[in-house]
Amino acid sequence: MADEPNNNPVPNNDKDIVFTAPSTTVPELTLSETANIEFEKYKMKMNFLKWVLGTFAIAIMTIIINWGFKDRAVGMNEISQYDRYATELIVLNDNPVKKRMLAQFFANVTPSNKLKCGWESYFKEVDKEYVKFMTETNNQKTRLAELEKKDSTQLTNAEKNEILFLRSKVREKENIINTPIVVPETSLTENTSIKKIEVLKFIKSNVIQSDLAKKFEDEGFLYLLNKDVNNAIDSFTKSENSYNGYHMVYDIAIYLNKNKDQLSSNNSENWKSVYNTILSKYNWKIPEKYISKLKEQSGTTY
Question: What is residue 94's DSSP assignment?
Fold first, then answer.
């Protein structure tokens, strides 16, 4: 039996079969969906920024806290060391001259900033006490000099008693000024941060400064006696700057500066008046050799 013919035609691959490519079109996002995506991106950025800032903030705070603890530890250690002798040496010291000197020392050598500020404030208070003490001393010396210039036969009993009183007070205050600093041995240990040797070095440096102040004071009086007012002012000022409160060089410099216009000429009669004023008002601690020369040039006989 013969094969039956196949009535189904064979498809022509080139013509009859059609392939359709998948669609590549991305569906459009709605406005709300776009906003949500942007918001999520913003949240991610903010979270990252928070993490960065938090990390750095913690690190910085840790450094600050550690520094604060270390500074406090140093301060507490200093306080424990100062407590061994600072109270006895300074606070309870009734000598305003030495108290001021030691307060100045601690204000300069204390390593802790907090304690340094405290010592600087304390020095300002002590300095006021020192100025008051020196002013009172100078006034007593001036008054004593005025009374001693009078004829002893003309003095009243009250004035004689006042002379005795003033001599006693002046002698007492000179002893206070000239008394050396004594560092309590029982208050010092090997572990004390500020050693006795440092205090003694400071005292030694003040002695050196005192010697320098004396040198400039001598120069000032020599210029003054030679009627060179500008150099006299300069030398007395250098003396004061070398050692604050040295004798009365500061007061003399101020006085000369106020009156220097009247002393431009060596032949001015105002020189005698200036010499007399210095002898009567600013004579505290003036070396005797200059007192005699000032009297000679001023024509004063007392």
Answer: -
